[in-house]
Request: fold
Amino acid sequence: MPKQVESIDTKNPAFFLFLVDQSGSMGLEFEDVPNRTMAQGVADAINGIIRALVLRCSTGTKIMDRYYMGLIGYNHQINLGFGGQLKGQYQVPVSQVADFPLRIEERIKREYDGVGGILEQRVKVEVWLDPVAEGRTKMREALEIASETVADFVEAYPNSFPPLVINITDGVPTDATKPDYPEVEEAANKLKQITNANGNHAMLFNIHITPARAKPILYPAVESVLPNHYARLLFRMSSPMTEAMIHRANVLEMDMNLTQGSRGFVYQGDLVSVIQLLDIGTRPGGQT
Amino acid sequence: MIFVRNYLVVKDGTPPEDNDDAVAADPRRGRAAISDGACESGFSKVWSRVLVDEYVRNFSGPTNAWAEWLENAQRQWCEELKGVRIPWYGQEQFERGAFATFLGVIVEKSGPTIRYHAEAVGDSCLFHIRGDECLLSFPLQKSDEFDVVPNLVGSRSPLDEIVRNRATSINGELQSGDSLLLMSDALAQWSLAEAESDRQPWRDIVDLVLGGCTDEAFDEWVARLRSDRGLHNDDVTLMLVRDQTRP
Reply:
């Protein structure tokens, strides 16, 4: 587990890189979110966490560049996720992310009012990522590009809190050899071997999602609780969570019982688990 | 009449203009205040400055006066932001309001004695120092009492809620040679931790200031505490107050 010594501030910004599976099967729906495909749900969750990260850096009239962000979609090709004026950019400071969403949509939020009625509220939603669900799953290539991006960042900001890559996928890679996908495991290991100036390692978290009705396996600490070969591979690919993340999950936010060694990994997750891990992972605990 | 000397050192890694701490003093009227803007709150820089300015200008006395000066401060905050263009990421924060800690002190002659009255919300602390000793630590007394999220004064919060649930006050008496130290949380917590480990920091701090420490020398002192003595990397504000009315 990384020893936390690094501050997160404008001199030493942290880097969060989101890898999003955009293959055809992402067009199925989450069991707990009717009328919204997994691709749409995940896009909503990513847009939500990006928005939260922007707000965390806001002084009201300007943005302090405490974070950099990256967004990579993968299916039969690699899609650099930021579009519009940020097209082609791998590592974007949060101030630029704030200034250049793809668009701002107006949506109707519907909530139960507690006395038998539904409250409708018009809300504005900033969009950086549009849902895509077509084609295959080039996870290996996405991880390799993530590795290069992380290595570049660490070279530019060697004293920063180690970068965190969060990979969201519903299935198995199609650009690696079945049944063990060693190339994907190797790409993941290469990424996690990148260290900053303090010797702290870059981190990779994996969120595996499913359209089926299934109980998510959340932040396991041992491989043996996982039901199959692929789940155990994803476990090995996932870094342990930091102390601050464990503390937050256990005490501050949710009723969990995580221990040292719990991995940043969810298997068979639903949309709620996606949102949870995105929130926990982006508060890694560097001094802010 | 008081002597006041302030130092403000921004968190390492942040440009000086982004310091969210504010100080104000009116030595002639014996008033001084510090405030620490909450870092994830929008417009907190404006709020912490308005808070200390309004207190020093308008606080009319200990009895039931919170509502009056604080109401003025809230109004002033809205006024100052009227003409400011607020981008999408500032809207929600503007509607929620800004948040900050607050610590204010008034020093007054009361017959033959010099009395002080202090008000606080949050974890900026006042220390009453006599020689090597700290006679009083307000509102927190121990280094483990500092929370990640302290009590805060909000620029849109209902006044009676603040007064009832968050504000606390204290009175004391100053003797000749005593000092009051006002500190924002990082330095306050560090000082208490030092004292708890039997390394009383009080006289050193008072001597440092009274010895004419320049801003640059103070920056260096803070840098050393951060690198060698475990001072948490955060904005540092230190204010020393002494009575000047006695001959």
